[in-house]
Design a protein that fits this description.
alpha+beta; six-stranded mixed sheet; four-stranded antiparallel sheet; rod-shaped; 10 strands
Length: 187
């Protein structure tokens, strides 16, 4: 009799675990997408004596079944000095050549100057836009026109650290800032 009760309890426990597992899998999760193919062209924001600020927008959305959180968003500008000696990338310890190209990611309507990304909730089936802001500095006594005269197309990786019901994951997409697009900003 005792073995029958224990057997029934174990069976009910296993059945309960299976039901909860099926329920959780039906609920789904957040699935964030960075829609880099729908990005806007770069637009000039401000001109200084030795620097220009420009920006573009990249939409994102959550095509999952649950609300998700974007904890951080950032970009990496791929322009190594071996490829182009007149432009440099800004990294904390590395600066070289004639142009300093720097970038930061913000939410549309929440522009910050401190390189901090404010985490955000993204309900299922919705989305917003990231504003990617770039700064191009002329260096070594060159004008921006001179420094950017021979700039090549620049690949940029956009990252978003996201969280839903499962563990933290990173979405990464690439896009290209074309040379013509950047040169047009200084003409």
């Amino acid at each position: 009799m005792l073995m029958t009760i224990v057997g029934v309890l174990v069976g009910l426990l296993i059945l309960g675990v299976i039901i909860v597992g099926v329920y959780i899998s039906i609920q789904g999760d957040a699935v964030m997408r960075l829609l880099v193919k729908q990005r806007t062209k770069a637009v000039l924001d401000k001109v200084y004596a030795d620097r220009i600020d420009f920006s573009l927008e990249v939409p994102f959305d959550n095509v999952g079944k649950q609300e998700g959180t974007i904890l951080d968003a950032y970009m990496r500008i791929y322009l190594p000095q071996e490829q182009y000696s007149d432009v440099c990338i800004y990294l904390p310890q590395e600066q070289y050549n004639d142009v300093l190209l720097r970038g930061k990611v913000n939410r549309e309507g929440y522009l910050r100057e401190d390189d901090y990304f404010e985490a955000m909730l993204v309900p299922a089936g919705t989305g917003e836009k990231f504003v990617l802001r770039f700064e191009a500095y002329a260096k070594n006594g060159k004008s921006l026109e001179e420094a950017m005269e021979n700039i090549p197309d620049v690949d940029v990786a956009l990252f978003a650290d996201c969280r839903g019901r499962r563990e933290l994951y990173t979405v990464k997409e690439y896009f290209t800032l074309t040379a013509d697009e950047m040169r047009a900003l200084v003409k």
